[in-house]
RimJ/RimL family protein N-acetyltransferase (Lentzea atacamensis), 188 residues
Amino acid sequence: MEPVEINAGEYYLRAFRNDDRVNDVPALVEIYADEETKRYMNNLNVSDVPTAELFIMLMTNGWAKNYRWSWAVCDAVTAEMVAGVVLHNIDLKVGSAEVTCWTHPAHRGKGVVPTALNAVLGWAFGAADMHRIVYKHSVFNPASRRVAEKCGFTLEGRLRHESIVDDQRVDELLWSRLATDPYPEQLR
């Protein structure tokens, strides 16, 4: 599949890029240098230019091979990358995927991810004919819990010792949203 661009009002979602016109590498390195991002996204180590370039290549391949769909969330006016949303573990036969998302530290608490994620979910449930999207996060990450709630996910349960945060095994909360669920009324 070719990368899909999504207009989400004050944000524009596009494929991650590293070319002669747009270079997301510096923003990715900056985002992943942030302690809070490293704390909860410790399975991804985008700490320098080569790994950021590899990350973009993997995101591009995901579109080409239809196993991962990803978006750089950009300010619609400045084009600055302010967040990211990735649908991965895509199963087209079942119509399911898992979502991972993050926000640039300078843009946290502004409703960027709920706005972007709801736009992605609208596309996934509509144009991509997905049925179920899963969202997981550490029990110690209240911002991720708020994203799940604002995006209309239903809490399904707790995954014991599913991840590592601060060098400790921690539980994760498992949420899902179905294509048949009502669209969330309140994003902020």
Summary: Helices lie at 25-33, 35-40, 49-65, 112-126, 142-150. DSSP finds five helices and eight strands in the chain. Strands lie at 6-8, 11-14, 69-75, 81-91, 96-103, 132-138, 154-165, 168-178.
